[in-house]
Fold these 2 entries.
Entry 1:
Amino acid sequence: MCTPIGYNKNANSDIMLKKAENILSKIPSADYADVRIVDQSSEDVATKDGVVEALESSQSLGYNVRILKDGVWGFAASFDLSEKGIDETIKKALAIVKASTAHKTSNVQLDELEPIIDSYKTPIKEDPFQVPMEEKIKILLAADNAQKVSDKIAVTQASYQANRERKYFVSSIGSKIDQDIVWTGAGTDTTAVDGPELQNRSYPNSFRGQNQTRGFELVRELELEKHAPKYAQEAVELLTADTCPTGEFDIILDGNQLALQIHESCGHAVELDRVLGYEASYAGTSFLTTEKLFNFQYGSDIVNLTADATIPGGLGTFGYDDEGVPAQRTYLVKEGKFQDYITSRDTVSKLHDLNPNYNKKSNGTVRASSWSRLPMIRMTNINLEPGGEAGTGKAWSLDEMIADTKYGIFMSTNRSWSIDDRRYNFQFGTEIAWEIKDGKLGRMLKNPTYQGITPQFWNSCDAICGRPEWTVWGTPNCGKGQPSQVMYTGHGASPARFKKVKVGVVKW
Amino acid sequence: MLGEEKLKQIAQKALSFSNAYQAEVLLSVSGNALTRFANNQIHQNVAWKNLGISARVIIDKKIGVASTNAFDNESLKDVIARATELANLQEPDPGFVSLPKPQKIIKVSDDIHHATEEEMAAGAHIVIKKAQKENLIASGAYANDVSELAVANSLGVWAHHAGSSCNLSTIVLGKDSSGFAADVARTPSEVNAELVAETAVQKTLESKNPQDIEPGEYEVILEPQAVSEMMAFFQWYGPNARIYHEGASPLSGKMGTQVFGKNITIIDDPFHESVFPMPFDFEGQPKKAITFIKNGVLENIAYDSYHALKYHQKNTGHALPAPNTMGPIPLHMYIAAGDKTRDAMINNVKRGLLVTRLWYVRVLNPKMLNVTGMTRDATFLIENGKIIRPVKNLRFNQSIPEALNNVVGIENKLTPLASFEGEMISLAPTLHISKWEFSSATLF
């Protein structure tokens, strides 16, 4: 008899926290130390052409110790929770401290943090791991079959994924936190092919659909089978649609595309570790250097961007970050002005030195993708606040916005993305677009792309839809760091309009 | 590391818990360390070890996969039971025929080298010192990956391999310039940190004060790192049986026809003298050298057991771990060397760009395999065969098949390139391509 999928045999919080405390107690004198035990479960189902192509359940349990001593960090992680294994892991972390100390030029400082003893659990209505697998397969196969609307359909796909992270955190300042974080996602993806032409349509979003820190209720609300035929039909229609024109036009970005625009051109750009050069060896740096804080006009005065790890259902929502700092809501850009970074306890201390006007503590954005990875600054939910809610602009509806556009292109659902290593020059492609003429949505357009420079682009934003059209989209595939870490992040967005953007930049 | 005999016992024990029609287990043991530096000092220094077992169970063409990271009896029983339970809940896959049978595998000696924390810190320090001497800022990573992989199935497949790699890479930053360099080797003593430092520092100095340049169509000299980055998506969307048979590959339906210039030969060789050998795939099937493109003609594509049996083709040993929704992907693919030196190719450029690296390359349309991306870490203008000046970075939108039809020069040697993580080396020559479309510029 196997254990039920998603069942956590080590789920007793008291036992696991005691285990973490035991590990912490073995660490010799240090400036600071913390221990994280993480137990991860996931299940993935993927169908293709009416067949369940992947049906997988995964579990991984391990821990890490993070030691700050003599001004440098040491980090070691292992699956081995035996006393011998723990001793070896601590010994390794201390050896790493010693090696790093030999070449240090400055000391790591941490900002102050009060000890916290607490628990957090993602509020879910229906535990995805308790829903019978037969039912999940049935939902996906129905959604897969519903995509077969034409003989031009080459590939039909549907997917579902659920993840549970049990985290047990203790630190030398006396914090003791356990968290049970659950996130779920699902979607469909249709490929239509005709000769050399290939087009895709996804519902409700590309790259594995919509993902949120919610339970199976999200999958039920998506009604994949009901919506799949419409999107499959659009994939077929795109095969013969006109190519998106080339020129400088006003564009309206749908919320699911704007989510990735925010992710790439704002979310990564405000990571303070990037700004300080810590990611220079791989992902790059950021144009939002520290002297720009409080005075740089990042966007137009209706642009308000926040980092908010407290939004119910957001994929970047949690109780505490992996340094034990409470989840928070922070304005990154207020009325167009650059206001803040997403920070950690050590980077924020550096920022205090670099910009004496900055006096805030860590805003709690440090997470690791697994027990084997070093916690680092990651996006939480990085959001473009709904129009009309942050003191500037008005709450448009999408219909009003289209009616107010003389000529423009309305683009939906990301297809490609790329941005330079300082987050200036970006180019995005979407699955589909429609021409707007004299305030009316017109012909469907294939292969839409647009390109810009980040601050110029956000300064051209002149209308943002209000809360009724605002959704927190999940981006479960954010890569960063060496060794690489894939993190789940969220982006609240509603459709917004941008003036005179370079469109149709690719020759097809 | 646990060693072949111990892993074989664990695999057999796990398979003994299965009563299914067929079963397969994939076992891994790994020890990794990475010393990362930025702003001329070590800032992240980590080590981790793990093990894993993934079980694939087949019941009447119904397939379930489960994994865990423990090898005790209870966990082995549980992972097989979970995979079996999933298989029982599955619908039959009519395309599935069988797990593969045992085949003769070339034995490659285990080759494991652990780098110490001190060795890795010392490598980082060599780069930092060189950068500091020129008032530059060094960032980078020194990784040591040690891994053991084994595959067994109920038809008698057994395959085991252990290996390791040391990989030092750096990006050195100047006020308005940067330079990249890397080296990969089996042992710490073989990693040439001095050369890595020298190359990156030199590139940074040569690329300072970059000038604006108009986007447009240029001849390009792509250095090996850029060629490797260009070809990454071709590896995935090109000779991949799944995508090929879906009709979604740029090569679909073109077997036996001229797809690229006659000077282009593309080979996948897991035993090339300059790579770390990989004797088998993730189904325990033997790997061997295979030519995909010969003198521009498509001759072969990559198959795993599923697609080989489904499409009545020969398995080429390109399986990835189950469940694999991406299809079989070649991991040791390279463009065969030509007959030119790098300098001779630069001499042949009338007006073009020398590109060190590409960055954030993404596919716009897999069927046409046109991609977008940026240049990064030192780009130069060439005029009349001479490097004139550094230029600011540009965005490109380029069809890869078109580029491979416009290659006018191929370097006479292949450069080994690190994969950044894991025991993997890719090979690439410098290429001279007559047309490359740059669509916009950035600000640095």
Entry 2:
Amino acid sequence: MIEYLIFAVFVGLLLHGIHRKAIARIQGRPGPPIWQEILHVLKFSFKETWIPATASQTLFVAVVIIAIGVWSTALFVLLTGGSLLLLFAVYMLHKIVEHGLGLSSGSPYGKFGAIRSVMSAASEIPLFATIAAIYLITGSLMISDIQAWQAAHGPLLFTALPAAIALYIVVLAKMHYSPFAVIESKEIVSGNVTEHFGVWRAGLEAAFGLKTFVLLYAFIVLFLGPMPLLLAAVAMVLLLLSLSFICALSPMLSPFDTVTIQIGTAGLIVVYVLLMGVIV
Amino acid sequence: MTMKKQTAGAVTVAAAMVCVAASAGWRLGLIETWIAIVLNVVAFPFFLVALGLWWNAAEKEEGDTPFIGY
């Protein structure tokens, strides 16, 4: 079981590396090697590690442990075919991590990141609508049941395309260099993770690697259905590359534009769910 | 606040043992899946962070991780 966690961390970091490489190539740069993010984690874990004097020491450290724990839980919910609600409850806990990271350090850049994290809570609204759409079609919120439904009826991607698009935007919002990644944009240094360096940053990068693995795999499981591991890996890379294209070609949005687009997406998907609820 | 290298090492070993024991116990059918998951979810973050702190802590002088602040 521990092997799943270690595997997911390494694959997640490798996916980050592929993401960076793809963005660089699209922008006409050579980019780093795809294993760069794995090296980053190792590098950070050897860097001098300390806690800023302005930080809340307990929260500063605890939030790193919580981040890893949150995405470890999400991985197991996904692998065991548990409840979709539980998976996305875990996803919501990630908000606490984002706030905690920014607020714990005492840094103004971190606090700006934390405040933007509150604003970007709008990105979670399409998620609820996605869950509702999946439930209306499959009649269950258990991931194992949703997979069984797709095995019998075909991928939900075609049956519930608007819901898939909404989840796609949610996944996009959580990617590095995303147009929605306002919490870590460069005008606030590294945003909510500015003061977390050394071992703390290494732990966070491992957690974010897990997050990327879980979100991409969740999209595949929820909208393409059950498939062999190798095929799922190929699908995850293709999904990632599509996200990389958007990240490479889109500028970082301002915070209010981010919220506007995400609320707009949520509004459209809510209309879709209501129509589906009436029709079905 | 200081974290001694030996303390970080002890946490790393303890957390690793919990993860390995839980995983092995689950494979052998000795413990329920949910118990193995809970043990791994709790122990794995401590393992990762303590491992970093352990190999980061100074060998020389007082052997502490320098939580010196600024």
